[in-house]
Amino acid sequence: MCSMIRKEYGSMADVTFPQRHTPLAGISPAIAALSVTPPQRRLTLHLRETDRACINGALGFALPPALRAAVQGQRAALWMGPEETLILSTEINDLAPALEAALQDVPHALVDVSHRQTGLLIEGERAVDALNTGCPLDLSEAAFPVGMCTRTLYHKAEIVLWRLSSTQFHVEVWRSFAPYVWELLDEARREAA
Known about the structure:
Elements: H1 2-9, E1 33-36, E2 41-47, H2 56-59, E3 69-72, E4 75-81, E5 84-89, H3 96-102, E6 108-112, E7 117-123, H4 127-131, E8 149-154, E9 157-165, E10 168-174, H5 178-192
Keywords: Oxidoreductase
EC number: 1.5.3.1
Protein name: Sarcosine oxidase gamma subunit
């Protein structure tokens, strides 16, 4: 092969090879960027509607209304159902003992699911398009405004979807489905470009 190149071009220095591009060349993070959220403590709280106010002091804010999230500092509470809330926290201190103390006289279930789930962040001007490749919801800002959250599907995986801003979404997914969801979101965001 080398002798053929030398005959046609004279030497290897005369050969021009096509320029190689990285697989993500040309994809602007502004279009859609995908990342893993920082480590978080995740607690699921099952509590009767009539008892919700008893943890406001321990949590630091009131639990959110239906299909909404409430945020203060490094803590967030996401409404998952009439008697279920997902609490996220990036704080080092464990929130569970303070919540258990506030709930000691109230029937409830507080479970640490930190190792069950992981969080993904998809953001950019085409984040909605990337999500809608596998999510059946209308994610227009009129139908799914900032602060809204819900359980839904992304292709065949159950996720929790939370809109942080007009161009930013937090996706909670079970760890076993995380590679599947990541690959599909990554492919969708590249196609959206």
